[in-house]
Structure formats: C-alpha cells, structure tokens
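Backbone-to-sequence.
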C-alpha cells in the first residue's frame, strides 16, 4: 500500500565544488590558525575567479543613493522566487533612475499588477537589465509609449522596441521610480538577465556595492519521513543551539524512519539594511559526503514556480513560514541543484550514528554551519495510511478524478510528489449557486500548472442564463472567478490552485465611484482624476473611459483607475463616460460632467 510513497531517484554522483569543501573544512575541522589563513587566501582567489564569470562592476547602481535592499534575488514568494533586487528609495517616489550600462531600450511593459511600468535595456555584453514599478519614463520614450497606447486604445502594453531607436549611455536618466503594479511600497525592482536565454541572474554576483559581512541565520531545523509523500507527513522539529556561526544539537537526534530528508527555516542579512533576505546557497553532507546542494542563480520566470517544490508549501500558505527543503522532490525540474545520487534523501538502513553537516552561505561566502548526529530508531517509527476515499496521484503521469457532478484532470506536470487526492461534493450553500460545491483536496497542496475542472449545473438553465454563469474557486482566503466554456450542462475552466469550486449565477454589474469628486466638479489645480471600480465577485474585467467621445487613457492600480491630466483634456467643460464590465459580462455605464 505504501509503495507509491517511496522515493527512489538514482542520478549521477558529482563532486562538491572546491570552495564549498574548503568552507566545510573551516567550519568543521580542528585546524591551525596558519592553515585557516592559507585556506582563506585560497578561498579569496577561488571566489574572485568564480565571480569573474560575470563582468564585475560593468553595471552601475541604478539610483544615485547607496544601495539598501528590501528584497534579494531568490527570496521566497508565493508561487515564485523573487527574480531581482528590490532597492529602497528612501520611502519616496520619483527618484531618478539611471541606465546601469550602455545599451538601448528594447522593451516596455505596462501592467496593472506585476511590474507596473517597466523598462528593459539590452547591453552589448550579452545581458539585459530591467527597471520596474516606475512612475514615468524619460520624455522622448514616454511620448513614444503614449502614442502607442492611444493608437491601440489600450493602457496595458508589452511592446518590443526596435534596436537603437532609443540608445542610452551608462548613467543616463531613464525614468522616475515609483510604486506601480504589484508593488506594496515605493522601491525600484532591478533585474539582470541573460539576453540570449532570457534567464534571470543574481545581480549580487556582478559586483554590486552592497556591504555584507553577516552570515545567514538559521531559525529552525526539521526532518521529514520520506517513506511517504512530503504532503502526508508533518515536519518534525530538531532543537538546535548556536555558538558563533555554528549550530548544533545537544544530543544524537533519534528518528523513526529509515529514510528522511531535512528542511531549514533560514534568512540572510547584510550590513546595509535591517531587512531579512533569502539564502543564496545550501549544501548537505552525510558522513562527509555531499548529498545535496543548491545555488539560487540563473533560472527563468517560467521555471520560478518550482519554488513551491523547494519549500514546505503547507506551512507557507498557512503562516508564511518558509521551510526550505534540503532535498529534491521528484517533480521539481528547476535547474539549480547539484545532481546527486540521493537527491538529499538520507538513508538510515542501520542503527549506526551518522554525521550530518550543513553549510548555508550568501553571495559573499559568509557562511553558517550546522553539525549534528542522527540515528534511526525503529521503536519510534510511525506509519501512515491512505484514506479509503482518496485517489493516489503519481508524479509524471496524468491523473483524472471524477465524482457524480465533477471531473478533475491533472497533467503529468501537476504534482511534485505522489500523494492521495480526495475530491468530494456538498450541496449548494447560497441562492445564486447552481452546482454542488466541489471540494478538490487541500488548498495547502501545490499544483504546478492548471488543472481542468468540469462541473455539472444542478438546474436546467436557459442559454441566456448560462451566459451569466461563472466558476469560482475558493482557495484558502483567496478567490478566483472565471468564465468557463459550456459542454452541454457542464462548464469547463482551469485553475492553478486546489480548493472549493462551484458555479454561480452573476447578474450584478460593477460599481463605479468617483474618488474625491462628483459630476459637475471643477479640476483647476488637480493633477489627476481617480475613479474606483469594484465588483461583488472579482476585480472588473475591463474599463473604458471616453472624454467627449474620444478614448481617454486611465492607468490602473488595484481597484483605482487614474487619469493624469495632459493635452488630451484641454481647458473647458467636458463629458466623461465610463464603462466597466465584470467577468460574467455584466456592464455598467456612468456619465459625468466636469470643468478643467
């Protein structure tokens, strides 16, 4: 019965990097001061050589203030790693942003969430830099972008710019910093990418001037029973104490499983900021043999969702507790690991005491070490069973689960570890619900890509009413609403989370509310006009504003739509007509007069 939960992955053995082995010696061996000095010198040259694989100091700071970070590359985020540096802007907006090196503007992206307003600059040395959450671009570029927006009648853009149309030099002013898009406060998001592959690289490996002499901090150590799926067992805490930068246990750790893996809750710091950051590198040794290692650098946005396979996702979604695995789950395809025979699973097939050593370090090789001993004790073994109503879903295989009124399809890439999935139904809970509620497993289990959800309506619906039905997925505290496709009496949609799905009739239009003004107002000194649009089920799907019959561009931030007065609104009296539409197609139109 338990066979599907065992993980056995055999991969080619590789040696640990010399730099890591030397750190291992310093942290764990009793050696002379002279020997330490020699090793440190070797480390210095190895470090410099490794760093030189990226051009050092080719890129300047994108701001004219000392760099203070609010987030680093590889920091844990929901459904992705943080893919660049968040540079603080002294809690202010509109600080000047400068090109990090010579090149040309190659792309502009403008979106409600995500980057907000962003500039991409391609450089002749094979790299591209990105600057995001901007308030505005430099004048010539801003006018080019605005012309395109008005020509398209669309504020959101993702435009490729012809090479050398907008050349820039190192240190040239390119934008004003801001708080646009998914930003939660004023800052500049800065990235460095490999132009050819599109992969994001760690900017701190390019010689950015961020003082750092502080080793990563380890808060908690855990072990997992890997006879079973990682999603069916609880993390078992291991008490650790710290002396200098070495953590250890007070006694031999006794575990009740012959196959375990480890997890760490850890963060990094630097000398320039009080913020906490993600840890760049971790290496696990068992009986002095390297078993597992990762370095957070050089991967793409497309693969960044594998962050969910590299941490205890259940603890993350429940309380934002980031326990990072020191093992590779079978469905994790992110290429940041030293591929080793055990993939981080520790096999304790005897009663001997085994020596565990872990090194965690940052980009400057500030390192902390964890030393302890572990021993398998069969008397402590705890066995788990599969619920009788569960369907065991395997990794790398498509899985289909059906109930009387639902059909759920998972792709071969959906899961990171084999696990039992339970899908059940309960009756409709509210009047506008026209299907049972389909409970799709546990929202604290991650899925990597969209799962297709098909639900049968429990009432005979006219074609007109079908057009007002949406599918809602409640996943923890979040809700997603989509307009699916009908196949007879069944609606089909897709979601990238698990949770409770149901069909709802939505006949309620969005609500439009002017913020700080009303029809008939005068805008003599104001710089902008704000309109708030909300919907009872989700954010509005579309928003259109017409000024005296002509399309007018509003930027978007959460539920607010903002027009900044410009040449498209001359002095005089005007009529503004605003239309908002929700996911179900319900539409509302409001007209206002105002004087500029």
């Amino acid at each position: 019965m338990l066979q599907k939960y065992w993980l056995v992955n055999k991969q080619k053995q590789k040696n640990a990097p010399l730099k890591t082995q030397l750190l291992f010696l310093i942290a764990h061996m009793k050696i002379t001061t002279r020997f330490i000095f020699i090793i440190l010198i070797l480390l210095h040259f190895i470090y410099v050589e490794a760093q030189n694989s990226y051009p050092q100091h080719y890129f300047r700071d994108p701001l004219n203030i000392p760099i203070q970070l609010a987030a680093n590359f590889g920091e844990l985020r929901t459904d992705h790693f943080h893919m660049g540096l968040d540079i603080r802007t002294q809690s202010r907006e509109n600080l000047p942003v400068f090109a990090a090196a010579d090149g040309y503007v190659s792309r502009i992206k403008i979106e409600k969430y995500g980057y907000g307003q962003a500039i991409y600059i391609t450089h002749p040395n094979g790299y591209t830099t990105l600057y995001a959450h901007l308030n505005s671009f430099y004048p010539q570029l801003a006018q080019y972008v605005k012309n395109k927006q008005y020509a398209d009648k669309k504020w959101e853009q993702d435009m490729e710019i012809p090479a050398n149309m907008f050349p820039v030099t190192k240190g040239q002013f390119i934008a004003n910093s801001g708080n646009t898009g998914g930003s939660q406060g004023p800052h500049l998001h800065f990235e460095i990418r490999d132009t050819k592959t599109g992969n994001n690289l760690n900017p701190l490996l390019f010689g950015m001037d961020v003082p750092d002499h502080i080793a990563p901090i380890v808060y908690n150590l855990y072990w997992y029973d890997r006879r079973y799926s990682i999603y069916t067992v609880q993390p078992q805490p291991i008490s650790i104490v710290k002396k200098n930068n070495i953590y250890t246990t007070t006694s031999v750790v006794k575990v009740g499983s012959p196959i375990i893996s480890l997890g760490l809750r850890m963060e990094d710091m630097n000398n320039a900021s009080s913020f906490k950051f993600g840890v760049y590198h971790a290496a696990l040794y068992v009986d002095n043999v390297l078993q597992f290692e990762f370095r957070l650098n050089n991967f793409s946005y497309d693969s960044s969702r594998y962050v969910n396979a590299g941490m205890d996702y259940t603890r993350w979604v429940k309380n934002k507790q980031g326990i990072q695995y020191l093992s590779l789950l079978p469905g994790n395809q992110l290429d940041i690991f030293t591929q080793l025979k055990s993939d981080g699973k520790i096999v304790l097939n005897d009663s001997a005491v085994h020596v565990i050593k872990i090194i965690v370090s940052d980009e400057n090789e500030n390192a902390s070490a964890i030393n302890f001993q572990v021993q398998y004790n069969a008397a402590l073994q705890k066995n788990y069973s599969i619920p009788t109503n569960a369907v065991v879903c395997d990794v790398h295989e498509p899985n289909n689960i059906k109930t009387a009124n639902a059909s759920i399809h998972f792709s071969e890439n959906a899961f990171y570890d084999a696990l039992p999935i339970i899908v059940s139904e309960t009756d409709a809970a509210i009047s506008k619900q026209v299907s049972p509620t389909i409970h799709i497993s546990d929202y604290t289990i991650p899925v990597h890509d969209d799962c297709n959800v098909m639900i049968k309506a429990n009432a005979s619906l006219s074609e007109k009413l079908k057009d007002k039905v949406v599918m809602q997925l409640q996943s923890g505290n979040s809700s997603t609403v989509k307009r699916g496709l009908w196949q007879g009496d069944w609606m089909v949609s897709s979601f990238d989370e698990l949770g409770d799905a149901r069909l709802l009739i939505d006949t309620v239009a969005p609500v439009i509310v002017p913020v700080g003004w009303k029809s008939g107002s005068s805008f003599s000194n104001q710089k902008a006009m704000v309109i708030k649009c909300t919907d009872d089920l989700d954010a509005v799907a579309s928003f259109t504003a017409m000024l005296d019959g002509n399309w007018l561009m509003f930027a978007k931030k959460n539920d607010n739509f903002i027009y900044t007065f410009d040449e498209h609104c001359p002095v005089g009296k005007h009529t503004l007509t605003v239309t908002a539409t929700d996911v179900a197609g319900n539409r509302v139109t409001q007209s206002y007069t105002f004087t500029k």
